Amino acid sequence: MKSFISKRALASGVSLIGLVVLVFFLSRLTGDPTDLYLPLDASTEMRDQFRQMHGFNDPLIVQFGRYVADLARLDFGQSLRQARPAMDVVLEAFGWTFWLAVITMSCVTLAAIVIGSLAAFRVGGIFDRIATFFSLIGAAAPDFWLAIVAIVIFAVKLHWLPTSGTGTPWHWILPVSVLFIRPFGLILQVVRGSMIGVLSSAYVKTARAKGVRTPVIIFVHGLRNAMLPVITVIGDQAAAILNGAVVVETVFGFPGIGKLMIDSILLRDFAVVLAVIMVSALAIFIMNLLIDLAYALLDPRIRY
Amino acid sequence: MAEHLLEVRDLSVEFHTAAGTVKAVQDVSWHLDRGETLAILGESGSGKSVSASAIMNLIDMPPGRITSGTILFNGRDMLAMSAEERRAINGARIAMIFQDPLAHLNPVYTVGWQITEMMTTHGAPREEARTRALDLMKRVGIPRPELAMNKYPFQFSGGQRQRLMIAMALACKPDILIADEPTTALDVTVQAQVLELLGELQDETGMGLLLITHDLGVVAEIADRVVVMNSGCIVESGNAAEVYRNPQHPYTKKLIDAAPGKGEMPDEQERKGEPLLSAIGLHKTYGAFHALKGVDIAIMPGETVAVVGESGSGKSTLARAILRLDDPNSGQVLYRGRDLLAMSPRELFGLRRDLQMVFQDPTQSLNPRMTVFQLISEAWAIHPGILPRARWKERVAELLVKVGLKPDMAARYPHQFSGGQRQRIAIARALAMEPKLIVCDEAVSALDVSIQAQVIALLDGLRREFGLSYLFIAHDLPVVRDFADRVVVMKDGEIVEEGPVRQIFDAPAHPYTRALLAASLDPDPEIQAARRAARNLEEGLEIA
Asked: Which residues form the ABC transporter domain (chain B) (predicted)?
């Protein structure tokens, strides 16, 4: 187990290094941030001074060497835009996105498992048809459109909920609801498909021959077996939100990592871009590790 | 009319499928009394399992529908009971075990949990259920029950898993145990142990045993009465010994005649000259598992060498190693004096056409998206020069006729054929290469006995016609007795005995060979009764 985790950590570390190198040089290709930060009428001297101060005059390789040296001291550089340590900026935003992902995926998982399992129990029944119909619509609906429509209806017309920002629990309802829909549709379909297979399996037949009650057959005998493929998709969808629900966060002005990423790229805030990438890469690594551990927890045949 | 423990009267069940309505069973009637064993005997598709599924309420409706009949359990019609009443009977009063215990045990829960659940489902307190589960596991012969309780199904052997299924089924002391092909997936020696255990438990509890099987030997070993089914109807029923000795219906006669192991064994052939193929000192390991521990084997031209052994003996690994489907770790495989293992891929490619294989399950070994024509002619596309393209059609037709099919079947897909027909297609595909040697890995094990007899006859005819050699991997001794010239007995990756078929069957030297032969069931109930008596006497003497 320990060796499995360290092997995985090593492999992820190598790809993280590659990613940092790649992003460092590619982002520099977009140009010099100086012009974006100084006023239009700033003098050449001022511009030179700005460049000098942030080291943009040095050759790229020197800049890179300095960055790596700082990294070794766990210094991720300064945010140009906010003039404070880039990692502080990123961790603050990550906190928001983290809770957004946790709340959304908890709701999605619970709803998709219960509804998907019941749909699978009577395939082709009325409940199954309704669930499948709505889940397919959900899986297909574009989230930027949903977000805007939701704002128009619930915030602008009905005045039930705030349009954007954070502050109260009410602010969470629209972003979570919009983010909920697509993974819910997808995961419901996976649960349903997996459960249909499991419920026609030989061991479910045994359970029926034992006289086990139907809810126990579905949620005890069936569910644990059906969860294996579902977990993969849940992890994948959670990672997608952690990686930045860019569109939804932007539309709702939600101060998460997706919005931070977009803003930093537009303003060539390189240190922040790199810090975002490292944090989300780490989050995804931990996410995948958790999925693997969940597999082993659910299925005794899997051991690392 | 006297009341029976369980009585099925005029039961008809149909299934509605896209292809139309299938009448699975029609007007089936039988009964079972306390303490007796009734066998329902039939081939695949005969409907032998359907009445048991109806009793256990396991028929999915739709697509299934019970169109007529009653099932009386202690005089009450089960089909008129509520779902909850039937659920309370399942497991508690009527329990069931199945063919493949690995698939029928839940893979993600411990066996202790699963056995305990049988009792808690029917109202037993958890602690009491646990204690009884331990007793049951001890009774069915699971070593160290306290440890075994917390293990998962995959951590047991096939025989142990079936013992665990039996322990679970008997947990609530049911009045009836239904066993659906309980030993079909097991090795012969394990089969004998499981059947013996079932018999003992029946004596102890006085339960009625309903046995569903395709195997005349199993019927002969434990059934009191037998019901023979064909195409959803009962064709004959009565006392098991009576039916075997004096079958009335032509189908029963055919079934009994098809049972392998009664033919004349060939005389010993003198083996001289160069063997067609020989393996010397083959070793193969999978991780820490030593599958082949230095195996030597030789096949002469025109000879059929059978390799018999139980699961895990290494017989399939041997077949794969000889064809280099899996490279052995060390050793030599000489084909006409040249070492296959030392050959370059190009040289080996040239020889592939001489060495062909027929696998156990034709459903899996034939690509479902290719027509029969494509399946057979593919070999000629891979090995150009055997046959010009213009003659493919004609040759495929010839081959199909040769294996007993019709030329116009070439355009069809594998799913449009029965299991036996599919195996014929697989044989035709092997023949397309005009091979010198065909390796048959359990090639007839998945087939019904009557089909099995036909396929064996086909292989035998081809051997005479083309002078083919066969390496015939099998676990079923009667089939080997009918077909092989020589027999090689394997156990744990080693050859324990080898010799002409007559010698192996009439005068086995190694204790393991003797054990295999003793465990192999004879279809004649009287012979089995005599063997049982002899066994009991031996045990009695041991105790004394």
From this structure: 8-256, 277-517
